[in-house]
């Protein structure tokens, strides 16, 4: 018998690239084209910049006198040609071309980027502070984008604490960027303001923002001078474990170099499905939720997801009443199946015989193992072919919702109500429902529960032979295993989204 292929990431990626070969090429944005023009021109005199500027203005419709200066400074900074950007700014000065706010903002970003990569001197600090003073005099009220840019540059100076006031200014109308938070945290660590740094770092995580590598590099640089640097490394790694932090793929190199500066041994590694690090052979741990943590998630799912403020936007009063009655008499189940998610995993345009056959195969797979199965779906499933639907009805408990209702909250609640060890079969990552939990700690616990109990269908074969992507035998958390710490890193691939790479660290 033939397997039905559902989702195979590498296969999809290959087909996508075959149909859209342009994704493998550099996007031809105005910024990219502008940079190529600069890159292919020898610039040594102000007149050279004048020629380039005129050529760009005449070549690209979307680049105008209003935005060309900001874009030019930005592309030079992005490509780490800091001296080239500074020479362009000198050219503008000789031509008496006034810098608008967008260009000034990119000037601050340039000074920040240059200050991080090159030796930061008193002259560099003076340049930042004078520019900041000039901008403040000319523009008493600044937009959030400019304020974020100023924070980046100002964080490198002895006046870094002024960034806290700028942060508050941004909060009046919007939210500061994660990077603005992180540069201030880095400055606080470097200036021995540890309490402030940890406070802001918790604020970053509470606001569900990315932690940038400048936080780690500043922290490790600071503790490098301490006699107890081993325990200080342990403190950061334990914090990463508690907050479920992973290293972003584009920040791994800086993170590794910072650790190596502390004389630690760092290796990239892969952890097997069984949880064994291929570098040090340590066995990673499974961090199970306690019963109290599990009960707390269950209650919050009821309060925030099932009920919530807009409960009738997701269901009807009659249907909710029906569900409450069902749950009150519901026994515990070993497996809860998202019927529609399984049915449509082969595609939305498959005939009912195929979609119902997939669900029938999944039910049969668990029934053959002696599992008690609950299937949640929609009323239209009653019209499925009798051979498959009849088997499902005979071998699984079924709860069907109205065709326009959202059944995910019901699925979650039934899985949670069945107990801590119940398997949930769906490919849905439930991000929207996690968002409704609000509290970061609860989101972390919810992620841990779902990652440990979720089965995702990969292949289905008639008769119940199915292959699932199952939870690994370990938790994707920073953790200490014997003499080694293992730090998870996010995948660099846009197609292989569930692969986790690790850093194996020996202090």
What profile does the largest beta sheet have? 7 strands, mixed
- Shape verdict: elongated
Q: Tell me, what is the CATH class of the domain at 291-469? A: Alpha Beta
- Strand portion: 5-15%
The whole-number mean of residue pLDDT values reads 86
SS summary, helix count = 23
Structural class: alpha/beta
Strands, count: 11
| Oligomeric category | single chain
**Portion of residues in helices?**
40-55%
Uncertain stretches of 5 or more adjacent residues: 1-26, 309-313, 493-498
CATH topology of the domain at 291-469: Rossmann fold
CA distance, first residue to last residue: 53 Å
- Any guess at the CATH architecture of the domain at 291-469? 3-Layer(aba) Sandwich
Gyration radius, in Å: 28 Å
